[in-house]
UniProtKB/TrEMBL annotation:
Its cofactor is Mg(2+). This is Muconate cycloisomerase. Residues 140-238 form the Mandelate racemase/muconate lactonizing enzyme C-terminal domain. Keywords: Isomerase, Magnesium, Menaquinone biosynthesis, Metal-binding. GO terms for molecular function: magnesium ion binding; racemase and epimerase activity. Belongs to the mandelate racemase/muconate lactonizing enzyme family. PANTHER family: O-SUCCINYLBENZOATE SYNTHASE, O-SUCCINYLBENZOATE SYNTHASE-RELATED. InterPro entries: Enolase-like_C_sf, Enolase-like_N, Enolase_C-like, Mandelate_racemase_C, Mandelate_racemase_N_dom, Muconate_cycloisomerase_anti. Pfam families: MR_MLE_C, MR_MLE_N. One of its GO terms (biological process) is peptide metabolic process.
Length: 367
């Protein structure tokens, strides 16, 4: 169970449909495959998705920090020393997706070694989650058509609508068009990616007050502490903190400070070890959780559904597990499939997934 090597392999797979939102746009999955090898010949995998606009990480930076800083700190430890891994990695600030991919690849290797699914090791609540699909910026007609395609093809009936454009009516018109088109046959919520000011957010929420939204997420800048707290105090649906809670300490501060009333858990940024802490904190403080998506590929999505299906509170709401549908290809031998609006976690030990060596050879960009 001793870690002998950690690989960080950059790869690039184009999207068939770019995702646009208030803080950026994604056209290619330029991610990093992380592999943790052990002296038993076991290999655990995970992926790190660089999101420069959210965490300041780049693909080259993730490869460099893993190869030069993190790998030497974890080689020689055993797979059960995850708290030691965490303590060593936390000497370096930031780099959340690089740290998380190392953590999750270790969990995958542990599950494979023990002959158990990671999801069962974490909590084992269920083997599936309902899926929520993100609708990126476009016209109301195009976003309704995209939602219809997702419902008809994959049975998805929960949609997170990207908002944060100006004037706010550009986005509120989309949400209204979706509600008018689908009636109460779908669940809707909005995510501003910090695009609006607190007062614009309040105006938009008033315009959408009759649209039966489930949640509002990160509508305005988190560092506008007072504006955001005032906003959260004036809306009557749970306000999800996403970019403002990259660590468990941030979760505590945001919830106790009254600047959030729900939490997005993204395994891409808190791995499995820290996501457990986020889950336990949110549960203890009595707020709802949504499994978020860092625009993950299928490896990242397998991680998200492994965690989300492990606990009652995270399996309760639809998880954001569908961004991989917009990629032109992926790295797995057996792809993930969403049917009737549900994603089952892959059966098998660890994460239950295998990287296809031919696909990796085709998409890796380091040679
Ligand atoms: C989301 O929930 O915000 C877009 C930007 C980011 O950091 O994550 C994605 C999805
Ligand atoms: Mg978000």
């Amino acid at each position: 169970m001793k870690i002998t090597r950690v690989d960080a392999i950059p790869f690039a797979i184009p999207y068939t449909k770019p995702l646009k939102f208030a803080s950026g746009e994604v056209t290619d999955a330029e991610h990093v495959l992380v592999r943790v090898h052990t002296d038993d010949g076991v290999v655990g995998v995970a992926e790190a998705p660089p999101r420069p606009f959210t965490y300041g990480e780049t693909q080259a930076g993730i490869v460099a920090v893993i190869e030069r800083i993190f790998a030497p700190q974890v080689v020689g430890l055993t797979l059960t020393e995850r708290e030691v891994v965490g303590a060593r990695l936390s000497r370096t600030v930031g780099n959340p997706t690089a740290k998380s991919a190392v953590d999750m690849a270790i969990w995958d290797a542990l599950g494979r070694t023990l002959g158990l699914p990671v999801s069962d090791l974490l909590g084992g609540f269920t083997d599936r989650m309902r899926v929520s699909h993100m609708l990126g910026f476009d016209s109301p007609a195009a976003m309704v058509a995209e939602a219809e395609r997702m419902r008809d093809t994959f049975g998805i009936r929960t949609f997170k609508v990207k908002v944060g454009r100006r004037p706010v009516s550009l986005d509120t018109a989309v949400v209204r068009a979706l509600r008018e088109h689908f009636g109460d046959g779908v669940e809707l919520y909005v995510d501003g990616n910090r695009g609006w000011s607190a007062s614009e957010s309040l105006r938009a929420m008033k315009q959408m007050a009759d649209l039966d939204l489930l949640f509002a997420e990160e509508l305005c800048p988190a560092d506008d502490v007072l504006g955001r707290r005032r906003l959260v105090g004036q809306i009557d649906i749970p306000f999800i903190a996403d970019e403002s809670v990259p660590t468990p300490a941030d979760v505590t501060r945001e919830l106790l400070g009254g600047s959030a009333t729900a939490i997005s858990i993204k395994t891409a940024r808190t791995g499995f070890t820290q996501s457990q802490r986020v889950h336990h904190l949110a549960e203890g403080l009595g707020v709802e959780m949504v499994i978020g998506n860092q625009i993950d590929g299928q490896i990242g999505t397998a991680c998200a559904v492994a965690f989300g299906s492990a606990f009652a509170a995270t399996a309760r709401h639809a998880g954001e597990l569908s961004n991989f549908l917009d990629m032109s290809d992926d790295l797995l031998t057996e792809g993930l499939h969403i049917r009737d609006g549900v994603l089952r976690r892959p059966a098998g030990n660890g994460l239950g997934i295998e990287v296809d060596p031919d696909k990796l050879a085709r998409y890796r960009t380091d040679h």
